[in-house]
Sequence to fold (300 residues):
Amino acid sequence: MIPWYAPTTIEQWFRRLLSPRAVVLVLFLVALIVTEWRFAWMEQVAGSYLVTTNRYRPKSGTVWEQGRQSDQARQALAQFATQQQNVQREAQQAGSLGQVVANMDAKGAMLSAEHFLNLYLKLPPVLAQEIASPYVLLALSSAGRWERAFFQQEDENLSISLLDSQNQVVYRLSIGAVLMGHIERGEVAIRTGLEQLSDFSDNIYTAELFFEALNALPEASRRRVLAHPEDLLRVSGRIRRIGISAGAMGDNVDLGFEVEDLEGPKVILMQGAREEVRQLQRAMEGSFQNARPSGGEARP
Fold:
């Protein structure tokens, strides 16, 4: 047996170093090092232990905080992407420029050039002219570069950028707050009388006659002639005459409501469904077949 006291000679040192116990210990340590280097079993054992105890450990520290921030960022991006998809879907399904403006968020909205032109052509001609000249849009459309229209709010104005396939601006439109309000309501006010607007000069009726004939129609037909009567109730001044356009824009007909206020006459432009407006017009004409004054005079 190896004595418990420290060796006193070199021979005793060698005997202890070459003893079976020391050799086994050295071989064991060498085996641990070799197998760890070859198979990395210590890391695997430690990892397995950490996985099994993970749910019991507190969620704190730099790693947990970074993971939490990453999760929050992913959730925010997912919500933003969903919101943008909803906004774009609503813009693509919009039936008027007013709906595009009303549903647009802070990031804006995008329409194809074809869809923008379709909505532009639904506007009353006077309102459409205020937004952009049809000659300019015709030139851009014919050039073949214009692909999209991007709507974005800039302070109180609405900016519409006409973009090419590389998202380069080929033309920019700016719409003021007042005009934007008219677009959202689908109407525009012009400081003039009905006689000065050639579209209405041959078909001008008194307000009493127009609203009497309108109230004789079924509710559904009245809504198709005048979709938002509450907008007219908000107008300061008295509605005296109504003009009906001789032409039509697709399925719609322009209506002009002449209002007299302290600043003089003004005409509020709206649109009604062509079939119902013509039905209303025939009813008014039929009521006064024997009293048909010349153009420019309101029918009694």
Remarks:
- Residues 191 and 264 are 8 Å apart (CA to CA).
- Residues 290-296 have pLDDT under 50 and may be disordered.
- Strands lie at 109-112, 148-154, 157-163, 169-175, 188-190, 204-206, 238-244, 252-261, 264-273.
